[in-house]
Amino acid sequence: MPDALTLRALRKSYPGVVAVDSLDLDVAAGECFGLLGPNGAGKTTTIEICEGLTTPDSGEVLVLGRRWRSDARELRERLGIQLQETQLSDKLTVEETVRLFRSFYRTGRPVDDVIALVQLGEKRRARVGTLSGGQKQRLALACALVGDPELLFLDEPTTGLDPQARRQLWELIDAFRATGRTTLLTTHYMDEAERLCDRVAIVDHGKVIALGSPRELIASLGAEHVLEFSAPRSIERLSLDTLRALPGVHDARHDDGEFQLEITELHRAVPALLGELAQHGLEMTELRTRSATLEDVFVSLTGRHLRDD
Amino acid sequence: MTDSTVTLPAGDVQRPTAPAAPRRRLVDHSLVQLTLVRYREFIREPEAVFWVFVFPILLAAGLGLAFRNRPVDVQRIAVLASAPGAQALASALQQDHALSVQVLDDSAAARALRTGEVALVAIPRGDRSVTYRFDDTRPEARTARLLVDDAVQRAAGRQDPVGVAEQKVREHGSRYIDFVIPGLLGMNLMGSGIWGIGFAIVDARKRRLLKRLIATPMSRSEYLASFLFSRLTWLLLEVVTLLGFGVLVFDVPLRGSVVQLFAICLLAALTFGAMGLLIASRARTVEGASGLMNLVMLPMWVFSGVFFSSSNFPAAMQPFIQALPLTAVNNALRANMLQGAGIDALWGSLAIQAVWLVGCFVLALKLFRWR
After folding, report:
1. Which end of chain A has a smaller Cβ tally under 10 Å, C or N?
2. In a domain, B359, yes or no
3. Contact state of B28 with A99 under an 8 Å Cβ cutoff
4. In a domain? residue B20
5. How many CB pairs below 8 A link A and B?
């Protein structure tokens, strides 16, 4: 199988900002690929270049082995697209909206099937304006799926949705992936990328700074666990180097009054840490351990969090 | 060539091409679907329906009532009761049906004259002379003086040296309602063309719906054509309701060819639609577009002879006024409806419209932004 998507030395700048900076990417057919990064990392610009909505300043874009310049019409038939901020017409019903989008494609799926697939059967005759955020997002997905696409682009599909609506949408994306087709999605939710994606590219300042399956990326930290603790007045007496030297500790950071340790062996690191604190006469006020996530990968690569809220 | 012998490059996905696509019902054609969306969005916006269909009729009804032609005016006058021969004068004046005569005493007559209740007070003198007391700055008082004097002189046995005969002609087509209905029709065509197309497009752009649509294989020209088709349907209804109202309620004449009248309306709708498209070609907010629309339409509401003739404006302004598309539309509509002029007599107005249509449309296509 050739790659569903190939990007080479892609570059796009807007006045005052380089949105995409010599970005390379290969998405294999059949995989669910995630672009993970903070807001403003260039994810949307990248996906819109792939969708043929934005022209790059330079670089090469191959979608399903085709180029936008020569095969735009054919490509549009074969892609399913959901944009970040589209508001479909409030005055149309769910069914009318899907039927409209179906009419644009030469071949596609029956309107009723797609509506049932995204679980809007009961809302078929409801006006779009009356739908909840999650229902609107599922309708947007229905509009993306009704042309029976080989490649699905989803830009921040679950942003602003409540947890239940997000899980519902994830199941739909899973179902699409199960048909063996390709998905490219952007997100700034690490749990979403971990849950959905076969592979993830972590994007920051228009560049891919890490690439691999979520498991590989987390493993690349060299530590499977994260230990977070607070100890008042400890920063003056406890150096990060001391902490890094403890057995079972891979790396240490201090952030916002709290220490974060990347841990390879929890059973050795915890007693060692407690001993170190006792030696300095420090009191521990909080202690948490958890499995490492893609967020930790991003933090270890950039020193920043994915979301600053 | 047969597909079976062709070796596709490894991995190339083979897809059915256009001719292989199954036949679909007409209603599933994208142009039909896009046009249906236009209808639905319009009908489901009750305010738009009011402004396009109900408002012009209310306006026409109001103007028609306010400026209806009254029966011949009757002038109210008084004869001073204390004067000698007052009753005889009063009965002589009552012979004239254009006069309504009261006999009043001094104070009542003075008050009635002051308040305008009567236009004139006639005071007979003993010596066969009559004094007329009236305010000569008031037109109805001057009319009353002429009528009263005529009646007085006739009653006294005046013989006219020249014999006259009267032929009364009260023709439709010269009333205010006859003037204003074509004007309202033109104004309505302008409003629904510019607003109807402009707002829908700017709204779709603001919602990023335009961007979403061009991410599909939708034909962009079909999208624009859907506006055209829906406008033409509503146009027919708009014209029929307003003209029907004018003809049935006010008996407004339709002297020209009705087919040609619709052709004029069609050209007008296309012209104003193109202007709406041009205004909407770049605007990103409904507020911005709304300001632009008012800027474009306001001069035409004032200058283009909707409610009063554009010839009221100074000669120096006439070249500008005559070049406005609404002036051309109104002139053509009035010439057709009121004078029965044929298309061949209207080429000037139609040419002005055509220039606006082509100019706006070409510029709009050049400037149009889909994102």
Report:
1. C
2. yes
3. yes
4. no
5. 89
